Amino acid sequence: MTTETTSTRSTAPLAVTSRRPVGPRTWVTTAAANVVTAVLGVMFLIPLLWVVFAAFNAKAGLKLEWPGSGFSLDNFRAVLTPETTYRPMWNGLVLCVGSTVIAIFVATLAAYPLSRFETRYKRPFLLTILFSTGLPITAIMVPVYGLFVQLNLIDTIGGTIAFMATTALPMSIFLCKNFMDGVPLTLEEAAWTDGANSMQTLRHIVLPLMWPGLSVVTIFTFIGMWGNFFIPFVLLLSPDRLPASVSIFTFFGQYGSVQWGQLAAYSVLYTLPVVVLYVLLSRRLGGAFNFGGALKG
């Protein structure tokens, strides 16, 4: 009897709280938020639908319309050539993969001491990194172009990869440091007790536990590189070295009137590397950081 009475008294306040009436002001706010979200979703959905529909429409224009009887793969046959798609895609993959690998490697090494050690220069360095994440690239491209001319790095793939990786470093370091902060230090201390040094704990303890975070940083960095138009447009001069992000611009100038269907087909092909990368890394993103289980083990 005593137990039942205590249980009834303990659950009564919860029932009253869950039945608290919602006022008209809350309904209006929720409805307004849903309407704004729906409008924003439609604004993003319409261009995507136009790209998909126009890619399979032989008579595509700027109007959003279902291909219907005009369904055709002619737009893809027209753009699937070495000059239009294969070579720019390959150049873009070389630039973006190379820049992403360098940026992730350097960012991991830079984030580790920032996450694990306390120095007097840690806070100024972090503030400098945070400031660099908001620095527009256009503000430094003129001196960078002059520097590349002096070093004879203009129109070189290696120099462009190095600069693109440099521009991605501030955000990559910032993200890696935040993900690394979530790895319990007690795991490293146990490894240090067994005789492991800092680089060994970073490789065998920290990195395996922060693979989801590294996957996020990799996708974020690669997408930023893949859609970068300005840097390769300024630093690469030869048409056969331009990536896909720059060659798509030629649909508006070099070929005269815009072939909207071919432009849409090229845009669909242009998004495939990002989709493939996301699918490959989605398994890493699906799991959460199981640090609790690691601690128990």
TrEMBL record:
Residues spanning the membrane: 27-56, 89-112, 124-145, 157-176, 209-235, 263-281
Claim: Repeat is one of the keywords in the record: no
Domain ABC transmembrane type-1: 89-281
Keywords, comma-separated and alphabetical: Cell membrane, Membrane, Transmembrane, Transmembrane helix, Transport
Cellular component GO terms held in the UniProt record: plasma membrane
Keyword Transport set for record: yes
GO BP field: transmembrane transport
Membrane topology: Multi-pass membrane protein
Protein's cellular compartments: Cell membrane
A Pfam family annotated for this UniProt entry: BPD_transp_1
SUPFAM superfamilies reported for this sequence: MetI-like
Major localization class: membrane
PANTHER family reported in the protein's UniProt record: INNER MEMBRANE ABC TRANSPORTER PERMEASE PROTEIN YCJP, MALTOSE TRANSPORT SYSTEM PERMEASE-RELATED
Similarity comment text for this entry: Belongs to the binding-protein-dependent transport system permease family.
Protein name: Carbohydrate ABC transporter membrane protein 2 (CUT1 family)
Organism: Kineococcus rhizosphaerae
